[in-house]
Predict the 3D structure of the following.
Amino acid sequence: MNSPRIAEQQNDASFDDIWDELQYRGLVHVSTDEAALKQLLAGDPITFYCGFDPTAPSLHLGNLVQILTMRRLQLAGHKPLGLVGGSTGLIGDPRPTAERTLNTPETVADWVGRLRGQIERFLSFEGDSAARMVNNLDWTAPLSAIEFLREVGKHFRVGTMIKKDAVSARLNSDAGISYTEFSYQILQGMDFLELFRQYGCVLQTGGSDQWGNLTSGTDLVRRVEGTSVHAIGTPLITNSDGTKFGKSEGNAIWLDAELTSPYAIYQFWLNTDDADVIARLKVFTFLSRAEIEDYERQVAEEPFKRAAQRRLALEVTSLLHGADAVQAAIDASAALFGQGELSALDERTLEAALAELPRATAGSGASIAQLLVDAGLTKSLGESRRAIAQGGVYLDNVKVEDEAALLPEQLLHGRFAVLRRGKRTLAGVVAS
């Protein structure tokens, strides 16, 4: 099933062509010949691909950059091939730091299916520019090791391979690199050659950290077929303070709602820094240049309203999980701060909201004063009692009047409660 927002998506007609729009949105960090690419993308429809390795049961926000880039190219009339790496996922591209742990074939096969389903939601499989999903295990599994070495490996030069950034970093580390991971770039290069032969594919997109692997494919096609093909490397997105984008409390933000809840996704985007929000609107939404420029003005003139952040959170959460999930997240945020009924929130949304807060665990009859300490809202029982006496403590949005008050037996969905100190300091209580 497609993402609920896919039918509404369109490229910005104010740009001369898709290349100019990709440049405006900051999606081209490195590429093969720019002039040739601009001409290619402005001409007749081409077939292009992007690959995703099943190294986890879900894609994450970094992968969403690639998927939306594919969708923009598709909206410009080009034909996407979504490749899920059933064979490359059995090996894993070299990380700069250490060897990957190899997953079982059964695990990789399961993750291939999950990732394929996620990618399919964001592309159209109808019309003249219909997408197609492919799995590189289909053309690598039948090859013997001898065939692989003779037909593909002979076209690669070791001197060139060891200059690739990830390989070079590993060669200069104590961990070194295995032949298994060293061969990854040959497999990815073979993907481009195979897709060129089968579908006339002439462009690969991917993250700029994969540039060495992308050019392995362009080089192989040129050597074997005598034809120039192209690659685009999108930038690795970082926050303005230099920290890595797409993490919350050190954990990846996943596209799977079971791994990262819609509420957590919404809050992640809502908390975007003013310095980053316009760049995020360009990359992760289909808002027009005029709309984005208007939000840029609002950030400069009225940053306290956080209009750009609210629109960003709405657009991306709706894209990933639908309008109902957005509304549930908005309702949960309001209810947590006393602007709605906590009892009206469904259990899953409430649990997701509390997972983002400091938490205390207790059974019914526990002291509210002690729970404030346990949740980190106060430093001592004395401070808790003073806060209650001053009228600044709330349980499920009801003011706590008694310093000796206890947690009631009737909890939200039988196991949750929300503590609040003052207007904005929250914590969750979960029944033990």
